[in-house]
Amino acid sequence: MAEPISFSTPDPTVRELLATHPQLTLDVQCGLMMEGVPLSAIADEVGTPCWVMSAGTLRARAQRLSGAMMQAGLSVSSHFAVKANDHLAILKILAKAGLGADVVSAGELLRARRAGIPASRIVFSGVGKTEAELRLALAEGIAQVNVESAEELEILSALAVECRREMTVLLRVNPDVDAGTHAKITTGVAGNKFGVPWDEALALYRHAAGLPGIRAAGYAMHIGSQILAAAPFRAAYARLAALVRATREAGLAVSAVDCGGGLGICYRDEGEGSPDVWAGVIRAELGDLDVRLAIEPGRWIAAPAGVLLSTVVLRKAVTGEAPFIVLDAAMNDLLRPSLYDAWHGIVPLSPRDAVAAAETATIVGPVCESGDTFAQERVLPRLERGARVAVLDTGAYGAVMSSTYNARPLAAEVLVDGGRWSVIRPRQSVEALWAGETIPDWIKHPA
C-alpha cells in the first residue's frame, strides 16, 4: 500500500466537518440529517451504498454564485458542467435556477435537452468531439461549440456547410497557466491535450473568421478544477484579455468570452473558493472588454450537495497497525480517492457513533484492488461492524463516475428536498448487469 498523504494539520473532527458543511446537522436523537431528513431513515429503507443529494443546497449555491456575479456588476451566462453530475433531476433543478449546460458528449447534450435545458443555453466543450456529435450540435442549434484544435475547426466547417447551418464558435485557448491543483485535473498548462496553443490562437481565429459555416465569436478558457486561490484565474484572464485586444487590433471582431469553471470547495480544512473573489477577478480582468461573458461551474455547485451512505462490513485487526474498516461502498462507487488521492470527510450517521472515542483507522472498500481505499490512517470515531457513515462532498464526480467493476450493481440515488425525499434512481439489480449480454451460438452449441 502507498504511503498515506501527510497533512500539516490534524484531521478535522466530526464537529469541525459539520461546521464547514451547513447543509448537514447532527441531531442528538436522529443522528446525521440533511434538510431535516435523517440519513439513517434513508439507509433503512433504501440500503447502502446509496447516494443522497440535497436539492436545497443545489439551489442555494446556484443562487449564491449568480448573486456574486450580479453584485460585481457582471452579466454572465452560467452553464453547469454536466460531467460533474448528469442526473436528470439535478439538471432540472439547476435549469430552474437559471443555469444552462456545458456538455462534452452527445449523451450529455441529449441529457441536458431531456432535462428541459433549451439548446440556446447549451455549450459543447471537449477535445475529441466526433463527427456524429458535431452533427447533433448543428441539428439542435446549440449556443456555441468551443473548438479545441485547427483540425476540429475544419471538420465543423465542412459539416456546417453540408448541413446548411452556421455554428457560433469560440476557440478554447491554452494560456499555459498552472492552476496549482492536482496534475490530473489541471487543463491549462503547456503539454495538456486541451485547447489551442497560445502562440497559435490569433492566427487560427483569423482563419476561423473566414471559414464557411463558422461564426467566430471569441475565445474560451478552462485552466483546471478545484482552484482555491485568485492568482491562477487572474493570470489566465489577464492573458485572455490581452488576446482579445490583440485580435481586435488585427481587425477581427470579438463578442464573447467563456471563462470556464474550476472554483474549488472545502473538502478538508483548505477553505472554499469564493464566488465573490472569482467574480471580482472576472470584473477586473475582463469587465471592460464589452463582450458576452460565460462561466462553467460544476464542482462548486454540486459537490457539497451530495453524500455517499455506506455501512461497515467488518473491522479487520492488524497487529501493530491501524485497523482496516471495510465498507460496503467501494472504488467502483466513488472513484476519486483512488484516482486523485482525494480527501473526503467521513461522518457516522448514528449520534452515538459520532461522539465515540477517536482512533486511527484505514477505511477501505471490498473491491479486489489495493487502490480501493477511501482514507489511510484517518482519525475517526471508532466504527464497529454495522455502523453507517456518510462520505461527504460526493455530489460532483461521484455517482457519475461509478462503474459495475467486480460485478457490483450501481448504487441507488436519492433526492432530499425540504424534508421530503424520493429515490431518483433505484438500485441496479444483479440481473441487470448481464441483461444486454449475449453468447454467440457457436459457443453455446459447438459443432
From TrEMBL:
EC id: 4.1.1.20
N6-(pyridoxal phosphate)lysine PTM sites in chain numbering: 83
Metabolic or biological pathway: Amino-acid biosynthesis; L-lysine biosynthesis via DAP pathway; L-lysine from DL-2,6-diaminopimelate: step 1/1
Matches recorded under PROSITE patterns: ODR_DC_2_1, ODR_DC_2_2
InterPro entries: Ala_racemase/Decarboxylase_C, DAP_deCOOHase_LysA, De-COase2_CS, De-COase2_N, De-COase2_pyr-phos_BS, Orn/DAP/Arg_de-COase, PLP-binding_barrel
Binding site for substrate: 299, 336, 340, 369, 397
Reactions this protein catalyses: meso-2,6-diaminopimelate + H(+) = L-lysine + CO2
Annotated ranges, domain Orn/DAP/Arg decarboxylase 2 N-terminal: 62-303
SUPFAM superfamilies in the record: Alanine racemase C-terminal domain-like, PLP-binding barrel
Molecular functions (GO terms): diaminopimelate decarboxylase activity
Subunit-structure text: Homodimer.
Role played: Specifically catalyzes the decarboxylation of meso-diaminopimelate (meso-DAP) to L-lysine.
Listed HAMAP family: LysA
Designated name of the protein: Diaminopimelate decarboxylase
Species whose genome carries this gene: Acetobacter fallax
Gene responsible for this protein: lysA
